[in-house]
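Example 3.2
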Amino acid sequence: VFSGFWSAAAAGEMAGSLPFGVFPTMITPFTDDNQIDWRTLDALVEWYIACGCTGLFSVCQSSEMYNLTKEERLLVAKRVKERAAGRVAVVASGTFGGPIAEQAAFVREMGAIVDAVVVLVNQMAAEGEPDAVWKSNVQALMDATGSLNLGLYECPKPYHRLLSPELLKWCAQSGRFTFHKDTCCVRASIEAKIKASQSPKFRFYNANVATTLMSTRLGASGFSGISANFYPQILVWLCANPSHESAHRVQNWLSVAENVVMYKYPKSAKAFLNLFDGFTFSTHCRASDVVLNEEEQTKLQCLMELSTQLCAELGLPVANPAQFLND
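Structure, written as C-alpha cells:
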C-alpha cells in the first residue's frame, strides 16, 4: 500500500541524499528493571517500516537520549540500522556537549553506523551566545569529521535554540548537511527556512504536526515528529497526498489529536502502543517515569479507536507491531 508513495521523489534523489517522507522520532523501550528492551525495539523498527516510513530518527529526545549512556546510544543506533537493513534511512544524534574535539570524536563513531549524524543545535553554543559562535563551532566540527553526512535538530532541551534562515542556508550550502528537523512551529519562519535552504542534498523535515500540510505544500521533505509513534501511516499519507480533497480534514484531525499525543510523552506513546492486541511491554521511562491516570488512559483508547476509523476512511491498513515480535 505504501511502497509507491515516494517512488517519484525517490527517483529524483541524488546519491547521498535522504528520502522524502516520514522519519519517526523513535522511542526507546525499557524493561521494568531499566534495561533496553531489544526485542520490542526490533519489532518497532519493523512496524515503522510496515507503516510506510522512509527513515528513522534513532537516539533523539523521544528516545530519551540524555538518559542513555554513550555506549547505549551507539548500541541503539547500531541495532536500528542493522534491523532496517537498508530498507529505510537511519539517522541518530551525535553531539552531547563538551569540547568540540570530543563531540567530533563521538560523531565519527556514530558516523560509522548511521546514514547521517545529527548535530543538536543547542550543543554548538551556550544559551545567549551569538550565532557567530555557533557557526564557528559547527565549522570546527565539520573540519574534524571528514566527509560524514550530518544533520540538524533544533532540540528543545536543555534549551531551545532555533536557526535563522541565513544560518540554515549556510548549513545547506556547505554540502555536509542532509537532514534538518525543524521545531520552530511558526508558519512564516518555516516558509522562510524552506526557501533559504534549497540545496540538492539538504532535506527539511517538519516536527510540528499542526503545520505539516502547509510545510509539505511549500516543499518540505516530510515529517519527523512524535505522533509518528502513534499512527505513522496517517502522516505518511498526508505527506504523500497534500493535494488530496481529504488532506485538510486529515490535517485538522492530526492537529487536535496532538493534544492527547503530547501529554506526558513519551509515556503516552508507550501506553498507546500497548493498546495493540498482543503487544505488551513496559511503559517505563528513564527521563520521567510519570503515571497515567484512568482518564488519561481512556483518552488514549479513544485516540486508538478514532485513528483506526480514520485509517479505514482513507483506505489505510493498520499494522499491529505484535506481528513483528520474535520469540
